[in-house]
Amino acid sequence: MNKSYGSFSRRGPDIVTEELITVLSGKTTLEFKPIFELLHANLRARNSANGGEEMLRLRAYEKLQNLVSLGKVKKNGKKYRGVAAAAPKLQANPLGGN
Protein backbone atom coordinates (compact mmCIF):
# COMPACT_ATOMS: atom_id res chain seq x y z
CA MET A 1 0.00 0.00 0.00
CA ASN A 2 1.48 3.37 -1.02
CA LYS A 3 1.09 6.06 1.56
CA SER A 4 1.32 9.62 0.48
CA TYR A 5 2.58 11.86 3.24
CA GLY A 6 2.08 14.98 1.22
CA SER A 7 4.67 17.57 0.48
CA PHE A 8 4.95 21.28 0.27
CA SER A 9 4.58 22.75 -3.13
CA ARG A 10 7.14 25.28 -4.21
CA ARG A 11 6.16 28.63 -2.83
CA GLY A 12 6.17 31.84 -4.75
CA PRO A 13 8.53 34.70 -3.99
CA ASP A 14 8.61 35.92 -0.40
CA ILE A 15 6.95 39.33 -0.47
CA VAL A 16 8.35 40.47 2.90
CA THR A 17 11.93 39.72 1.81
CA GLU A 18 11.34 41.44 -1.54
CA GLU A 19 10.14 44.58 0.22
CA LEU A 20 13.04 44.47 2.70
CA ILE A 21 15.41 44.38 -0.27
CA THR A 22 13.58 47.33 -1.82
CA VAL A 23 13.75 49.37 1.39
CA LEU A 24 17.43 48.55 1.98
CA SER A 25 18.53 49.05 -1.63
CA GLY A 26 19.18 52.76 -1.03
CA LYS A 27 22.41 54.15 0.38
CA THR A 28 20.82 55.26 3.63
CA THR A 29 21.35 53.58 6.99
CA LEU A 30 18.16 53.00 8.94
CA GLU A 31 17.08 51.61 12.29
CA PHE A 32 14.49 48.84 12.35
CA LYS A 33 11.50 51.07 13.13
CA PRO A 34 11.80 53.23 9.96
CA ILE A 35 12.59 50.10 7.94
CA PHE A 36 9.41 48.47 9.22
CA GLU A 37 7.32 51.60 8.59
CA LEU A 38 8.49 51.71 4.95
CA LEU A 39 8.02 47.96 4.59
CA HIS A 40 4.50 48.11 6.03
CA ALA A 41 3.54 51.05 3.79
CA ASN A 42 4.86 49.21 0.71
CA LEU A 43 2.96 46.05 1.64
CA ARG A 44 -0.25 48.00 2.24
CA ALA A 45 0.17 49.62 -1.19
CA ARG A 46 0.48 46.12 -2.70
CA ASN A 47 -2.53 44.99 -0.62
CA SER A 48 -0.30 42.33 0.94
CA ALA A 49 -0.18 43.48 4.58
CA ASN A 50 -2.32 40.82 6.16
CA GLY A 51 -2.01 38.73 9.31
CA GLY A 52 -1.65 41.54 11.82
CA GLU A 53 0.96 44.22 12.26
CA GLU A 54 2.77 42.59 15.21
CA MET A 55 3.15 39.27 13.38
CA LEU A 56 4.44 41.13 10.33
CA ARG A 57 6.92 43.01 12.54
CA LEU A 58 8.26 39.72 13.93
CA ARG A 59 8.53 38.14 10.47
CA ALA A 60 10.29 41.22 9.08
CA TYR A 61 12.78 41.30 11.96
CA GLU A 62 13.55 37.60 11.53
CA LYS A 63 14.08 37.99 7.79
CA LEU A 64 16.25 41.07 8.35
CA GLN A 65 18.45 39.11 10.78
CA ASN A 66 18.72 36.29 8.22
CA LEU A 67 19.94 38.79 5.61
CA VAL A 68 22.47 40.14 8.14
CA SER A 69 23.77 36.64 8.91
CA LEU A 70 24.18 35.96 5.18
CA GLY A 71 26.22 39.15 4.80
CA LYS A 72 23.69 40.80 2.51
CA VAL A 73 22.85 43.54 5.00
CA LYS A 74 25.32 45.32 7.30
CA LYS A 75 24.39 46.03 10.89
CA ASN A 76 26.16 48.78 12.81
CA GLY A 77 24.73 49.07 16.31
CA LYS A 78 20.99 49.36 15.73
CA LYS A 79 21.26 50.58 12.14
CA TYR A 80 21.02 48.51 8.96
CA ARG A 81 22.25 49.14 5.43
CA GLY A 82 22.10 47.00 2.32
CA VAL A 83 25.45 45.83 0.94
CA ALA A 84 25.86 47.32 -2.54
CA ALA A 85 27.84 44.36 -3.89
CA ALA A 86 25.11 41.97 -2.76
CA ALA A 87 22.21 43.95 -4.26
CA PRO A 88 22.08 42.15 -7.65
CA LYS A 89 22.40 38.79 -5.88
CA LEU A 90 19.70 39.79 -3.40
CA GLN A 91 17.26 40.44 -6.19
CA ALA A 92 17.92 37.06 -7.81
CA ASN A 93 18.23 34.91 -4.69
CA PRO A 94 17.16 36.72 -1.50
CA LEU A 95 17.94 34.03 1.08
CA GLY A 96 21.04 32.45 -0.33
CA GLY A 97 19.41 29.52 -2.14
CA ASN A 98 18.62 27.37 0.90
What does this molecule look like?
The chain has 98 residues and is mainly alpha-helical. It has one domain: Arc Repressor Mutant, subunit A. It has four helices and three strands, in the order αβααββα. A hairpin with a 2-residue loop joins strand 2 and strand 3. Helix 1 (15-24) packs across helix 2 (32-45). The protein is globular, with a radius of gyration of 15 Å. 17% of the residues are buried. The model has no long low-confidence stretch (mean pLDDT 81).
Layout of strands and helices, then pairs:
Elements: H1 15-24, E1 30-31, H2 32-45, H3 53-69, E2 73-76, E3 79-82, H4 87-92
Antiparallel strand pairs: 1-3, 2-3
Helix pairs in contact: 1-2, 2-3
pLDDT under 50 segments (min length 5)? none
* Overall mean confidence score, pLDDT: 81
Biggest sheet strand line-up? 1-3-2
> Can you tell me the CATH class?
Mainly Alpha
CATH architecture: Orthogonal Bundle
Number of strands: 3
What's the story with the biggest beta sheet? 3 strands, antiparallel
Shape: globular
Output the number of helix runs.
4
CATH topology: Arc Repressor Mutant, subunit A
Helix content bin: 40-55%
User: What would you call the structural class?
Assistant: mainly alpha
Computed over alpha carbons, the radius of gyration is 15 Å
| SSE succession | HEHHEEH
CATH homology superfamily: Winged helix-like DNA-binding domain superfamily/Winged helix DNA-binding domain
Q: Whole-Å distance between the termini?
A: 33 Å
DSSP strand (E) fraction?
A: 5-15%
Work out the count of structural domains.
Answer: 1
